């Protein structure tokens, strides 16, 4: 459960509506999508990115998607970015589309959090050239 007393909690409420919400724990979410240059697997944060419906348009959403391949979508002033340790998304409507890891999930509240030191990833860190060229 999420505490509701704003004086004793570090939770921050961000009200929608939103055109787009992306939450990831790593910089690249596929071989051709750089979601957040700043993210690393061991930084202890999720990257929360969102576009507010009342401050942007579908054109802004299209512009965002065309810049995902090079990570430049976060440079747009209508894309908001926050590092978070946990999140909870509560839809205001009774129906719509929600996906987790590209899979459609039942429409309703979704929450997640970083669980430090629960898993280990082993591998070589890429060089700057490999990140920029891939």
Describe this structure in words.
The protein has 134 residues and is α+β, with helices and mostly antiparallel strands. Helix content is 12%, strand content 28%. The protein has one domain (18-115, 126-132): Tumour Suppressor Smad4. The strands form four sheets. A three-stranded antiparallel β-sheet has the order 1-4-5, with helices on one face. It is globular. The model has no long low-confidence stretch (mean pLDDT 82).
The CATH topology comes to Tumour Suppressor Smad4
Under CATH at level 1, the class stands as Mainly Beta
Overall, the morphology is globular
Task: Give the integer mean of the pLDDT values.
Answer: 82
Runs with pLDDT <50, length 5+?
A: none
Distance between the termini: 41 Å
Strand fraction: 25-35%
Overall number of strands: 9
CATH architecture: Sandwich
What is the radius of gyration?
16 Å
Q: What is the number of helices?
A: 2
**Biggest sheet architecture:** 3 strands, antiparallel
- Write down the secondary-structure element order: EEEEHEEEEEH
SSE class = alpha+beta
Number of domains: 1
Strand order of the largest sheet: 1-4-5
Level of helix content?
10-25%
Which tags fit this structure?
134 residues; alpha+beta; Tumour Suppressor Smad4; 3-stranded antiparallel sheet; two-stranded antiparallel ribbon; 2 helices; 28% strand; globular
How would you summarize this macromolecular structure in one to three sentences?
The protein is α+β, with helices and mostly antiparallel strands and 134 residues long. The chain has two helices and nine strands; from the N terminus they run ββββαβββββα. It comes from Rotaria socialis.
């Amino acid at each position: 459960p999420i505490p509701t007393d704003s004086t004793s909690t570090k939770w921050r409420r961000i009200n929608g509506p939103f055109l787009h919400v992306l939450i990831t724990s790593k910089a690249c979410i596929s071989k051709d999508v750089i979601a957040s240059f700043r993210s690393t697997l061991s930084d202890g944060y999720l990257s929360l990115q969102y576009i507010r419906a009342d401050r942007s348009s579908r054109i802004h959403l299209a512009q965002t998607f065309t810049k995902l391949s090079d990570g430049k979508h976060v440079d747009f002033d209508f894309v908001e970015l926050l590092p978070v340790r946990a999140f909870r998304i509560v839809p205001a409507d009774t129906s719509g589309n929600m996906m987790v890891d590209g899979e459609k999930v039942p429409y309703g509240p979704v929450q997640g959090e970083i669980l430090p030191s629960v898993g280990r990833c082993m591998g070589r860190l890429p060089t700057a050239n490999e990140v920029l060229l891939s």
